[in-house]
Amino acid sequence: MRRRCFSPAGMLIAGAILCLVASTAPAPALSAGRTTFSVSSFGAAGNGIADDSEALVKAWKFACRIPRSTVLLPSGHRFLISPVTLQGPCNTRLTLQIDGDVLAPPGMGYWPKARRPLQWLNFKWLDGFTIQGTGTVDGQSTLLRSVSPANVSQHWYISGVKPTLIRFYSSFNVSVRNIRITNSPQCHLKFDSSGGIKVKNITISSPGDSLNTDGIHLQNTRDVDIRSSSIGCGDDCISIQTGCSNVHMKNINCNPGHGISLGGLGKDNSLACVSDVFAEHINVENALYGVRIKTWQGGKGTVRNVTFSNVRVANVATPIAIDQFYCDAGGGGARCGNRSDAVGITGVAYRRVAGTYTYQPVRLACSDARPCTGVSMADVRLSPASAAGAGGLRQPLCWKSYGEAMGMIEPTGIACLQRSNGFVMPLTKPFNYTC
Ligand SMILES: *[C@@H]1O[C@H](CO)[C@@H](O)[C@H](O)[C@H]1NC(C)=O
Ligand SMILES: *[C@@H]1O[C@H](CO)[C@@H](O)[C@H](O)[C@H]1NC(C)=O
Ligand SMILES: *[C@@H]1O[C@H](CO)[C@@H](O)[C@H](O)[C@H]1NC(C)=O
Ligand SMILES: *[C@@H]1O[C@H](CO)[C@@H](O)[C@H](O)[C@H]1NC(C)=O
Ligand SMILES: *[C@@H]1O[C@H](CO)[C@@H](O)[C@H](O)[C@H]1NC(C)=O
């Protein structure tokens, strides 16, 4: 086979001189038209002790310049990686093949403050990029579980912000598939200001009591397809924030966690826009919520065209929730007082939602200022997880929600959904923003 050589500038050139250059860079392996750069040939020890991030960055820099190339983290090895930014723009169709285990330094928060990252693996400015493989990405944050919430800020980044494990920023046409992601100090997989995202067949697992560990977090991201994946964590299974549209989720298992969530939107009177979200064949178990939309009072903007279809719940506190009075513990008293504005919610469909709840089957708490409209339910059947059901609220709450209920609805009592009101918005004042 003809040897291919690379200049330091990464140009693929033919001829004799180039192979001199190749002696300074490891020869990449060629297979099926792909050029593979293994971190092991760039000096990675792969023993889980030595820091291999320099080798990863070197391999990335070489691969980045060559079309259809792969950076390989081979199986049978454990690569300890310090926080790194792997950035583009790169040549087309770069792949990060994670077959071995990739480990974050345990307790990243114990590092000197200046070196504490907001994210551990930070990908940015990529277009046409894939992460795949049979390996595990391990945030090793179990050590920090024992740190009390009051002490978290001492150990973590300013004001207690813990790093996200894998974050994409301003990246397009990205696929993440087959890998396992575990024990993140905070969010496991985040897409920010990105588009054309495909996530398939991944597993995310962290304990249910690990604080703020969202599974997948989307913000300002469009055209997303997440499917056939299992997510267990201590916060939202999939969290959809402002600026997201055309998000499709299919065949997702959430267990444990807080379920699939749009929001909290509109915090600090901000503008929030989320539209065209479709979730189907969703299975939520042992969770605080099943499918939820949460907005802060005082926000602006809209959530529109959201469908939850074929949702199974088991042992979920509140399977169906719209909460326009959302206020998390960090919100503080005054900030959560009654406001006269709210993020509008319109066009939310629940079709075939069935299973068991432990607290309240349905909670639609919409604001007086901007009632929810076009809320439809068809074939919703929810029963208490145990006959005892002590302390729970068997009755659904339905406040300022307009729409219609069709087919079998159990328990009954979602009376505020009235067909006659449908999409008619009983507004007291016009919207003064554009989404
Ligand atoms: C990204 O996807 C969009 C839409 O499919 C396409 O128009 C664009 O060319 C893609 N870019 C790359 C670099 O693949
Ligand atoms: C899903 O991922 C697992 C773990 O990497 C892998 O063994 C399996 O082959 C993948 N399934 C498909 C359909 O790709
Ligand atoms: C919090 O940190 C202080 C000072 O480092 C320590 O004395 C205390 O035991 C810690 N408390 C908990 C609950 O971890
Ligand atoms: C609602 O969202 C779905 C999913 O993104 C999309 O296919 C559909 O066209 C949208 N409907 C309207 C009326 O915009
Ligand atoms: C906010 O409004 C609700 C419903 O109108 C009312 O019950 C509650 O007392 C109000 N809270 C404050 C702090 O004004």
How would you describe the oligomerization state of the chains in this entry?
A: single chain
Distance between the termini: 57 Å
Q: Give the CATH H-level superfamily of the domain at 236-435.
A: Single-stranded right-handed beta-helix, Pectin lyase-like
Tell me the fraction of residues in β-strands, as a range. Answer: over 45%
Main beta sheet = 29 strands, mixed
What class do helices, strands and sheet pairing give? mainly beta
Briefly summarize what is shown:
By secondary structure, the protein is mainly beta.
Describe this structure as you would to a colleague.
This protein has 435 residues and is mainly beta. The protein has a domain at 236-435: Single-stranded right-handed beta-helix, Pectin lyase-like (Pectate Lyase C-like, 3 Solenoid). Helix content is 6%, strand content 49%. The protein contains three helices and 31 strands. It has helices at residues 18-22, 53-64, 149-155, and strands at residues 5-6, 12-13, 29-31, 34-38, 47-51, 69-73, 78-80, 84-87, 94-98, 101-103, 119-124, 127-132, 136-138, 164-169, 172-177, 180-182, 189-192, 195-200, 203-205, 216-219, 222-232, 238-240, 244-254, 260-265, 271-296, 300-326, 344-357, 362-365, 372-384, 397-399, 401-410. The strands form two sheets. The protein has a 29-stranded mixed β-sheet that branches. A two-stranded antiparallel sheet has the order 1-2. The radius of gyration is 24 Å and the shape is elongated. The protein starts with a strand and ends in a 25-residue tail after the last strand. The relative contact order is 0.06. The structure holds 2-acetamido-2-deoxy-beta-D-glucopyranose (5 copies). One 2-acetamido-2-deoxy-beta-D-glucopyranose binds next to strand 25.
